């Protein structure tokens, strides 16, 4: 199978690694890619991921059998539709279905029709009066959940007990010309559950947990994700099945009923509170960085699996197989991430097999340098979460990148038994 992966981060590195291990894969390409992917795939750096014409032309020129789209921006822009119209199999939803991530109002409407538990939300439009904004702040919070109602790579969300900080974010989002979404705060531990969805067929992967705040103990601003681990030792035995039955299957059915059947990866971001699993958000693609941990444990050949979704045959796939044990990933971020990350710093000691590249490039001297906020992901796999942590942290400690930082507590609350599901209210 000749495969083209669209994207440039550590998620795409993990996808390429998984695809390369499937004996069915004969040829791998990536566009636009990053400096760490050359050993796995031919890199096409001049292609813009959201330029449907260029992506389709490249897929045709390479005569690929399958295109796998990693990030949300090309999916929301309709790149998968252009490929399908050209007769090319593609893993990823079309533009209409990708609104489950691209439009929070659409996602709320689907959930209301499907009877799925989620936060109450209200939108405030640019140009709203000061009184309207203050009244919304009165109705919500504390804690305030204030979202940029557009694609913001996880960084458009502020969750804060501080009214002034909530107001500051409201003003910044409105000033950028985007609507603001206020949401009621959902309590309880978070679960990222990725499901392969082919119409009404829903196949869950292992559940993971992301660490979104930049500093240890969940302090500091939200980021795209600073680390993740899988599976979740604190999740009830029927936890995944409940999320599938109560959230993912009803949503897949509702999307099919509306004429925008889902095909690709549906990411359910869940907060498990005393009323059970409630949806914080949906994404229309593999999560980053959770995918890097989840795919590290997948034994089922990845190319065949993604191709079965793309060709409408997921229901015929055998049950997924997994490595026993745990995996985690720790993100190495550049100086000043997530505010204004510094790029161009030389990276040393980043050759270990358990390192994935997120934001890297080569400079004029051919040295590996940072090229984004999240620079590298280090993976650890072990029979226990402690063993997985030991492996990842031993590797990351050796990497040299001036000004870089990483969290040292990825998966630690789970290891120390500090996470529990709230009991249902009687
Ligand atoms: N890890 C959060 C996301 O992928 O959106």
Automatic annotation (TrEMBL):
Q: Which reaction does it catalyse?
A: 5-phospho-beta-D-ribosylamine + glycine + ATP = N(1)-(5-phospho-beta-D-ribosyl)glycinamide + ADP + phosphate + H(+)
**Which InterPro entries does this UniProt record tie to the protein?**
ATP-grasp, ATP_grasp_subdomain_1, PreATP-grasp_dom_sf, PRibGlycinamid_synth_ATP-grasp, PRibGlycinamide_synth, PRibGlycinamide_synth_C-dom, PRibGlycinamide_synth_C_sf, PRibGlycinamide_synth_CS
Q: What is its EC number?
A: 6.3.4.13
Tell me where in this chain the ATP-grasp domain is found: 108-311
**Gene Ontology molecular function terms on file:** ATP binding; metal ion binding; phosphoribosylamine-glycine ligase activity
- What keywords is this UniProt entry annotated with? ATP-binding, Ligase, Nucleotide-binding, Purine biosynthesis
Q: Which cofactor does it need?
A: Mg(2+); Mn(2+)
Which pathway, per its entry?
Purine metabolism; IMP biosynthesis via de novo pathway; N(1)-(5-phospho-D-ribosyl)glycinamide from 5-phospho-alpha-D-ribose 1-diphosphate: step 2/2
- What SMART domains does UniProt report for this protein, alphabetically? GARS_A (SM01209), GARS_C (SM01210)
Statement: the UniProt record of this protein carries the keyword Cell inner membrane: no
ATP-binding keyword on record: yes
Q: Which GO terms describe its biological process?
A: 'de novo' IMP biosynthetic process; purine nucleobase biosynthetic process
The UniProt entry, under Pfam families, shows: GARS_A, GARS_C, GARS_N
Family label: Belongs to the GARS family.
Annotated HAMAP family = GARS
Q: Identify this protein by name.
A: Phosphoribosylamine--glycine ligase
Q: Which species is this UniProt entry from?
A: Corynebacterium efficiens (strain DSM 44549 / YS-314 / AJ 12310 / JCM 11189 / NBRC 100395)
What gene is this protein translated from?
A: purD
């Amino acid at each position: 199978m000749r495969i083209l992966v669209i994207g440039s981060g550590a998620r795409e590195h993990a996808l390429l690694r998984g695809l390369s291990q499937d004996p069915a894969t004969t040829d791998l390409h990536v566009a636009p890619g990053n400096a760490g992917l050359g050993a796995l795939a031919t890199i096409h750096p001049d292609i813009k991921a959201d330029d449907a014409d260029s992506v389709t032309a490249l897929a045709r020129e390479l005569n690929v059998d399958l295109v796998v789209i990693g990030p949300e921006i090309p999916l929301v822009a309709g790149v998968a539709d252009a490929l399908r119209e050209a007769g090319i199999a593609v893993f990823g939803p079309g533009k209409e279905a990708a609104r489950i991530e691209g439009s929070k109002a659409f996602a709320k409407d689907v959930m209301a029709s499907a009877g799925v538990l989620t936060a109450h939300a209200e939108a405030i439009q640019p140009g709203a009066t000061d009184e309207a904004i203050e009244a919304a702040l009165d109705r919500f919070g504390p804690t305030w959940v204030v979202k940029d109602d557009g694609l913001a790579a996880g960084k458009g969300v502020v969750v804060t007990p501080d009214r002034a900080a909530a107001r500051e974010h409201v003003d910044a989002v409105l000033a950028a010309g985007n609507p603001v979404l206020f949401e009621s705060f959902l309590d309880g531990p978070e679960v990222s559950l990725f499901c392969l969805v082919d119409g009404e067929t829903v196949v869950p992967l292992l559940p993971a947990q992301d660490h979104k705040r930049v500093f240890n103990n969940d302090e500091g601003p939200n980021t795209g994700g600073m680390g993740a681990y899988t599976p979740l030792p604190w999740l009830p035995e029927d936890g995944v099945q409940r999320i599938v039955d109560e959230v993912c299957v009803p949503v897949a059915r509702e999307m099919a009923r509306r004429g925008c059947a889902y095909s690709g990866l549906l990411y359910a971001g869940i907060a498990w509170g005393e009323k059970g699993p409630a949806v914080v958000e949906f994404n229309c693609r593999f999560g980053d960085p959770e995918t890097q941990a989840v795919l590290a444990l997948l034994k089922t050949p990845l190319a065949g699996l993604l191709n079965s979704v793309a060709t409408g045959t997921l229901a015929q796939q055998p049950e997924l197989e997994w490595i026993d044990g745990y995996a985690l990933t720790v993100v190495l971020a550049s100086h000043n991430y997530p505010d204004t990350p510094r790029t161009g710093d030389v990276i040393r000691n980043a050759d270990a097999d358990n390192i994935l590249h997120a934001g890297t490039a080569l400079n004029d001297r051919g040295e590996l340098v940072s090229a984004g906020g999240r620079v590298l992901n280090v993976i650890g796999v072990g029979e226990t979460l402690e063993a997985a942590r030991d492996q990842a942290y031993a590797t990351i400690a050796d990497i040299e990148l001036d000004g870089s930082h990483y969290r040292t507590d990825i998966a630690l609350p789970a290891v120390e038994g500090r996470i529990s599901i709230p009991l249902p209210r009687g």
